[in-house]
Design a protein that fits this description.
Radius of gyration: 30 Å
Strand content: 5-15%
Distance between the termini: 76 Å
Number of helices: 26
Largest sheet: 8 strands, mixed
Mean pLDDT: 89
Number of strands: 12
Shape: globular
């Protein structure tokens, strides 16, 4: 970063300004190349730094399925360009080109992982404070303008280029909260201090016993394999001892992200289920005064993230730079070329040993051969893969072979607007039991499949190890396809074709908005909480006569009413802490017809008045 000559391009620097610029470069940058040393030696320190970052346990652990987290290559380029632009701006030299590069690499980072964008945002904030506080003219307002200009330029480029993604994402985050995971996740997926200082959990010599070493005991292995490595730590300490001006900035950054990775509650040793606050396990949001807890309250949308220990990637990046500085200083202290080569080779060898994970635990593609036959099937209808009690990325792999639409795909959050959460039969397979809609899933499955365009149902026994996941899924599938011969069956999969439906069956489904997630509290019936006045119940293929009955409960008196979507006339209402609202479908269809509203499907909106939350425990279609 600091390789260009000070006062280049004929600039005239005053002694005070020149000294300040030299101090700034000395605090953050490594030395420019020394022409007295062979070129083969000059690259060793940055090579070792790159080796530490690339082969780090954090990086290797996320090869196990988090492909976006594995793509961490652009962050160092952004940081390099950012620091260069800040350096040039502070020296009064043209900084725009470096800022443009920073914006470019921030865009590439955003295309890989939004977690990394958050980390770089925090890195930038600390770097700005560092430069603003640096002499001369500490905390001056004119100096603040120079310091802010480069990152603002990079940020504007980032926002402008990715606005087509950012705008709908921000709008979504302001309107809905389904992307905010339960508070307990922040405690479960935090790092323990010892997770950083134990040896590599994935090391070939130690696994699988190493998975239970001191540290977080309950998070997935990929989220707690964040060891820094003893060689990197030793070189970082050497940097602090031998080149503290250069090392100070990176040590501050490393410690900053280290405490963030510890999450809302710090642990020095193990993290077990007993350490998770009971209130958090019950879904309550808890105040925390740790640095992470404070930032979670101050930084917009930060609460959407949940894997707190991933801040460790920034710790590893900073330690890699520190290790490079430490090795460089050690090398410059050696006058003997053989010693330089020997120490460099020793460091590389020890690093390779520390980070060694070969043979890596691979999962070969296991796509059943039958999907090639499905690819040749002219039926364009969608595929329903079972089980589906949670999203499985393997079904996306199978789709690359058969090429049909999927009924259930893979997203990292439970979105109540998806058909999986709103439609009977899919709800049953999802929750391994009934939702709040009272219905015989076997009776309406044919109609539901026809409405959704589902043509093929595949049961994969390799993905159903046992328990309700297997017994309920297979039992419901057997009831739906009773008397029907599978089109294919082997020891792994059973495949059914969905037959046409002669007479569609009426059924209810939930609307897309203002329904909370399905909850099963202790001593309470399963329920969904109404989150606003936009919640709807949709009657598909409504009968000429019948009733839609909604049963609810609340902790204080409320008024619950049902109206037609698109009209404010009340069809039925109920008051109290518990009760039912009963809508006459014949009357509802008559009103819809008179108003020119759709009669099939018939949309009913639920309105509520009162201070208490309304828990809907049952919605039934009675004929």
């Amino acid at each position: 970063i600091g390789g260009e000559g000070r006062g280049a391009r004929g600039e005239s620097l005053t002694p005070g300004r020149k000294d300040a610029e030299m101090r700034r470069e000395d605090e953050i940058c490594v030395d420019p190349p020394d022409p007295r040393h062979p070129r083969s030696i000059l690259f060793i320190a940055p090579f070792v730094a790159g080796l530490i970052y690339t082969l780090s346990p954090f990086h290797m652990a996320h090869l196990l399925g988090h492909m976006q987290v594995m793509s961490l290559q652009w962050m160092p380029f952004y940081i390099l360009a950012l620091l260069r632009s800040l350096q040039l701006a502070a020296a009064g030299r043209p900084w725009q080109r470096a800022a443009l590069w920073a914006g470019f690499f921030l865009i590439l980072t955003g295309l890989c992982d939004w977690y990394f964008v958050l980390y770089l945002f925090l890195f930038t904030a600390v770097a700005l404070l560092w430069h603003w506080a640096a002499p001369p003219r500490r905390f001056g307002w004119r100096k603040l303008g120079r310091v802010l200009a480069p990152p603002l330029t990079a940020g504007l480029i980032f926002v402008a280029v990715l606005s087509f993604w950012l705008a709908p994402m921000v709008l979504e985050a302001t309107r809905f909260r389904f992307m905010v995971r339960p508070a307990a996740d922040l405690y479960i997926l935090s790092a323990s201090m010892m997770d950083f200082f134990i040896p590599n959990r994935l090391h070939t010599l130690f696994r699988p016993d190493s998975f239970m070493w001191l540290g977080n005991q309950i998070a997935p292995v990929s989220e707690r394999t964040i060891a820094i490595g003893y060689t990197a730590l030793a070189l970082a300490v050497a940097a602090l001892t031998l080149a503290w001006r250069k090392a100070a900035f990176w040590w501050v950054m490393a410690l900053f992200f280290f405490v963030l990775a510890l999450g809302p509650q710090w642990h020095g040793g193990n993290i077990t289920w007993a350490d998770i606050p009971a209130a958090a396990l019950n879904g309550e949001e808890l105040a925390s005064w740790t640095p992470y807890g404070l930032l979670n309250q101050l930084v917009p949308f930060m609460r959407i993230s949940r894997s707190v220990s991933r801040f460790a990637v920034m710790v590893q990046l900073c330690m890699a730079v520190l290790a490079g500085i430490g090795l460089w200083r050690l090398r410059t202290m050696m006058r003997n070329t053989i010693a330089q080569y020997g120490v460099s080779a020793f460091v590389v060898a020890v690093l390779l040993f520390e980070y060694w994970v070969a043979p890596y635990p691979l999962s070969p593609p296991d796509t059943p051969a039958w999907y090639a036959e499905l690819a040749a099937d002219p039926d364009p209808r969608a595929v329903l893969n079972l089980p589906m009690n949670y999203d499985r990325p393997g079904y996306l792999l199978y789709q690359t072979v058969h090429g049909k639409p999927l009924t259930v795909a893979y997203i990292s959050r439970d979105d109540p607007r998806t058909l999986t959460e709103r439609t009977p039969v899919l709800q049953h397979f999802r929750h391994l039991g009934p939702d709040i809609i009272t219905v015989d899933p076997a009776q309406v499955a044919g109609t539901v499949f026809a409405d959704l365009g589902v043509g093929t149902v595949v049961l994969d026994r390799y993905k159903m190890p046992g328990g309700d996941e297997r017994t309920y899924t297979e039992g419901l599938a057997a009831a739906i396809f009773a008397g029907q011969t599978p089109v294919f069956e082997d020891e792994r999969i059973t495949v059914y074709k969905v037959a046409p439906v002669a007479t569609p069956q009426p059924y209810l489904m939930l609307g897309a908005l203002d329904w909370g997630p399905l909850e099963r509290g202790e001593g309470k019936a399963a329920y969904r909480t109404l989150l606003g006045d936009r919640a709807e119940v949709i009657v598909q293929h409504p009968p000429e006569a019948g009733f839609v009955t909604l049963r609810y409960a609340s902790d204080a008196p409320v008024t619950v009413s049902v109206v037609l979507t698109g009209d404010d006339a009340v069809l039925a209402t109920s008051e109290g802490t518990a009760g039912e609202v009963r809508v006459d479908l014949a009357e509802a269809r008559r009103v819809a017809h008179s108003l020119g509203l759709a009669e099939s499907p018939l949309s009913l909106r639920i309105a509520m008045a009162g201070e208490a939350a309304v828990r809907v425990e049952e919605v039934a279609l009675e004929r």
